[in-house]
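Fold this sequence, please.
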Amino acid sequence: MTASAVSQHLKVLRDAGLVAVRKAGRERLYRLNADPLREVAEWASTYERFWTERMDRLGTYLEKKAAPPNPSPGRQEQEQKTP
């Protein structure tokens, strides 16, 4: 990644309030501001629980559909008697 690309990415993060910058001589030092990310994580966790539940239910449904059907008990007896 070029220095120009890094600079552009850091500007986006700075504009979004996700990093703070301070000058130290010729260098600029960046520090993460995680507070906005915590808000997003809390908001997303609600949907994560919802979608995890839904995907678990879908998985159970698909497993049942993929399982071979159980023959009825009367049919099993007939199949066992047939030579």
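The mean pLDDT is 87. Residues 35-66 form the longest helix (32 residues).
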